[in-house]
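assembly run, all chains below
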Amino acid sequence: DAGITQSPRHKVTETGTPVTLRCHQTENHRYMYWYRQDPGHGLRLIHYSYGVKDTDKGEVSDGYSVSRSKTEDFLLTLESATSSQTSVYFCAISESDTEAFFGQGTRLTVV
Amino acid sequence: GESVGLHLPTLSVQEGDNSIINCAYSNSASDYFIWYKQESGKGPQFIIDIRSNMDKRQGQRVTVLLNKTVKHLSLQIAATQPGDSAVYFCAEKFGNEKLTFGTGTRLTIIP
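ok done. output:
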């Protein structure tokens, strides 16, 4: 998986609680992405980063924040989880702004 | 916004036969396309890409065809094997936008 590790792989949390998902890469790639995958919607971009401390919003960024304090780590935070954020979350990396390589995913359930 | 679509959500192919997975896009300005394969419980895996200045690109057992006239992209898999069973996504990129994914086609190989 191109040196990408997501943690945790599975998480169940209660509505209203904060949740942080971590993506760690060993490839020293410049770009990192967070996607969510839901039935009928494919993969939708939440946030992305084009360098340390440089991030931008994707198409479904509401309710999510990100941070990238070093090249290898990209954190996705749900400040107050809602049931609509139950999904499978994928981190991806790329060296250039072209093809992306994905991690194994994190299955998040908000009850 | 414009999005990438797929003609068929499911496709069943006899083992050893060739398979063709289709994808339609609506934005003629798209200049980069990728096919991904996603097996159950795993992240999407890069298969092959093509730029808009090309009509065809071949990889190992896979060929991507791009028809810009009708805005159509296809993935051909030769001599399908059981391991080819997966969901296949096409993705497009145009200008400075990020990759946009279709909803996927599930390919099932019949033994």
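Residues 32 and 105 of chain A are 14 Å apart (CA to CA).

The radius of gyration of chain A is 13 Å.

not gonna interpret more than that til we talk
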